[in-house]
Amino acid sequence: MKKIKGLIKNISGQNGSTFIETLIAMTILAYVLSGVLTMTTIQMKTNFNQINHTKAVKLAEEALERKMRENFDTLSGETHDFDTIESFSQYSRTIRITTIDPDNKKINVSVTWQERDRSGLQPITLSFRRTR
Fold first, then answer.
1. Burial of 111 (0-12, 13-18, 19+ CB in 10 A)
2. Are 68 and 130 in contact (CB under 8 A)?
3. pLDDT of 8
4. What is the model's pLDDT at position 79?
5. What does the domain layout of the chain look like in residue ranges?
6. For the chain, what is the HEC assignment?
7. What is the mean pLDDT of the chain?
8. Which residues in 5-21 are b (16+ Cβ under 10 Å) and which e?
9. How far, in Å, CA of 84 to CA of 88, rounded?
10. pTM
11. 11-20 pLDDT per residue, tens
12. Do the beta carbons of residue 49 and residue 115 sit within 8 Å?
């Protein structure tokens, strides 16, 4: 019984943890936090890229629908470039109309955008075949 009391007294006599234990705990915590911060940063970039992609698709759809409402005979085989789109200055849109035959035309709408961390992205392109 004296041995157990002496052991308990010895253990309870320690005042906190040692410097090495604290250093190890702080190192583990730093690795965990750096992993969490890295994942958060990657997720935020992915979310911003998806937002830009969604806006580009909407802008392409809007241009395609506008061309679909036009009279078939007035659709020309020209390329229409819009350097900037109102309220969306980082996006540019190109509309290309190709005559396949007298009764069919192909409408291609491409939208590109500028991103802070990337360059040379492939544009979003929607194609539609319109018949008379």
1. buried
2. yes
3. 53
4. 63
5. 16-131
6. CHHHHHHHHHHHCCCCCCHHHHHHHHHHHHHHHHHHHHHHHHHHHHHHHHHHHHHHHHHHHHHHHHHHHCCHHHCCCCEEEECCECCECCEEEEEEEEEEECCEEEEEEEEEECCCCCCCCCCEEEEEEEEC
7. 77
8. eeeeeeeeeeeeeeeee
9. 7
10. 0.62
11. 555 556 688 8
12. yes
Q: Which two tokens stand for residue 7?
A: 């052991």
Pair of tokens at residue 67: 């061309």
Taken as a whole, the chain contains a residue count of 132
Q: Quick one: pLDDT band at residue 28, thresholds 50, 70, 90?
A: very high
Q: Which residue has the tokens 């075949």?
A: 129
Q: How many CB atoms lie within 10 A of CB 82?
A: 15
| Type of residue at 85 | I
